[in-house]
Amino acid sequence: MDKKVLIVIPAYNEENTIAAVINELRQVAPAYDRVIVNDGSSDATEKVVNELGEKQLRLIHNLGYGQALQTGLKYGLMRGYDIIVSIDADGQHQPKDVTRLVAALQEKGADMVIGSRFCDGSAYNTPIDRRLGQLLFSYLTKVLLGQRIYDTSSGFKAIRATACEAIVNGSFMDFHIESIVQLKLSNFTIIEMPIKVQERTHGRSMHSIVSVFQYPLKTILLTIVAFMDAFFLRRQHAPAAHHDE
Fold first, then answer.
1. Which are the contacts of 147, defined by CB distance < 8 A and separation ≥ 6?
2. Over the stretch 189-203, which tens digit does the pLDDT of each residue have?
């Protein structure tokens, strides 16, 4: 039986790229449904999506990537999708890789497949500040989980519904390393699949000078919360010890 697949596309001020992403997804993954989560865009993103006749969830204010993605995941769960794929709206992810991620999820029996820029040995070819953060969190997964995840900040993922349920109910999720930590500690299987990304041609990255300092601190805090969430959940579901009288 074929699995129901939903592609979730968080979008904030992506009027210049969203149409190309949607049109290519229509060509390469016509069997999959799509929903755009418009994260309070102030440009013409809403108009472009409406003209294309796509399903759009509109957030009144810009709540950030984590809240936008959580909205899309909850929408997919409410409508009974088996697999949910997240892909960025800025054109950097290649839509043709969507079907590859879904196939890997099913063939490998994984619960989450991360589209990874680095797992095939590719260098962290990013500004030095972001490169250090990516390396830090990659090695942190090795310490916490015993499995190194090379691209903890990838927004390109295929996730089974059961794993989606676990992370949308987590505390303060930003859907990067903290969601990986929570899933892995809850005995979900996570793998990476190499992808190539394209250079951003329009819009601005969500990373700024301020976020260079804020993002690592916030992510470390969220990772601690996720670790504690998973720890207490495992203790709660652990079988009670039996003592002889």
1. 141, 184, 190
2. 999 999 999 866 555
